[in-house]
Amino acid sequence: MFIPNTLKDREEMLKTxxxxxxxxxxxxxxxxxxxxxxxxxxxSLDEQQTARRMKTLxxxxxxxxxxxxxxxxxxxxxxxxxxxISRGEYLTAYTPYQAEASQGLLxxxxxxxxxVCALYAMDCANASMYDGASAFGEAVRxxxxxxxxxxxxxxxxxxxxxxxxxKTYFANSEEYRFVxxxxxxxxxxxxxxxxxxxxDTACLAFQTPNFFGLPExxxxxxxxxxxxxxxxxxxxxxxxxxxxxxxxxxxxDFAVGEGQSLGLxxxxxxxxxxxxxxxxxxxxxxxxxxxxxxxxKDGRRGFVLxxxxxxxxxxxxxxxxxxxxxxALCALSATIYLALLGPEGLKELGLANARAAAFxxxxxAAVKGAALLFKxxxxxxxxxxxxxxxxxxxxxxxxxxxxxxxxxxKNFYQGLGPGALLVCATETKTEEDILRxxxxxxxxx
Length: 445
Hints:
By secondary structure, the protein is an alpha/beta fold. The chain has helices at residues 7-17, 22-26, 47-59, 79-85, 88-91, 103-120, 132-147, 160-169, 190-196, 218-227, 328-365, 390-401, 431-444, and strands at residues 65-66, 124-125, 151-155, 177-181, 183-184, 187-188, 201-208, 231-236, 254-258, 274-278, 289-295, 301-308, 370-372, 381-386, 403-404, 407-408, 420-424. The chain folds into two domains: 65-77 and 343-444, Aspartate Aminotransferase, domain 1; 79-338, Type I PLP-dependent aspartate aminotransferase-like (Major domain) (Aspartate Aminotransferase, domain 2, 3-Layer(aba) Sandwich). A hairpin with an 8-residue loop joins strand 13 (370-372) and strand 14 (381-386). The model has no long low-confidence stretch (mean pLDDT 93).
């Protein structure tokens, strides 16, 4: 083991933070979590015995039944996805700078871009980005560059992490203003939006389905924004596009999304996949890289990097972004997932999500002390209002029943009160799972 910090380095760090030793630093941690005793057998175990012992221990720790969503979703991933991306030529592929030696990787990127363009009904897509939040921030920056305007309108029911990331992108640009468009019964208030749009508005940035799980009237919102000369940045859940109108069909100028739903596991928070698409006229504002198809001198089909709008390749002041990479393996997973499902499979996926969420909402709203907060249709998650504190109720049921009932919203939307709970039910949830949640809620609310 190599430890780069010398004893002198550690002493200086401890002095700077005001403690004399590592033990002093750890005193703030409850004692029951420090220096645990390990119940290890006195005699050593061979590999087979160790495997048996670990299986026994794992069997005593049943999985948590989770109804948590809020932008990261538990979904069924076909076995073929993992089998294919685990092949060495895919798993070890990296940056495709040398086109003649990277034809396979460049082709997979091209296929990903083509799939995403078809899914979102947009003209152009890049090779992917870090995650949905970074794609959203980059899209708003692009819209501001195109229009030269300084006011950005964002819906109140936008994913809070997207909003934080967006403001981080503009942290050193004080001339920009971010104005929140309030919601009415969970949906963006179109009347308030009309009053806020003006000649200084760079773009309207909204998400559909929104953070509460409610699909917005995207065509109407897009029309209002364009009438004011503003661009439209739409964040759309790709898993919902088998049911709902894709952004390109209601005139979105930039359309982004979180690709985790397309064959990527939750994996404790990543790596995920940022989907970024735009109209053809804005392709030079697109961050990252684009792979294109061409012909070599002998007329054979080949793939190249067509566009790389970052500071490493062009003058820094001309760069659209400093994004330096794409999520190639994640993008390949999404491409394989989309190819396996196809258009009909995506529609079936959307219907399965909508049905599971509708059944969950019906059963949970039947519990005394619980009710749906909004009346609008929803996709795979909804807001449930419970009479008790949602955070305390979540902790109680999680400890007793090993069920995560969802995300309490009071830290994000204080106006909803302490009982607001965002509940998600994807295609992975059975009727038995939902009835188990209903029973736990009924007994503990």
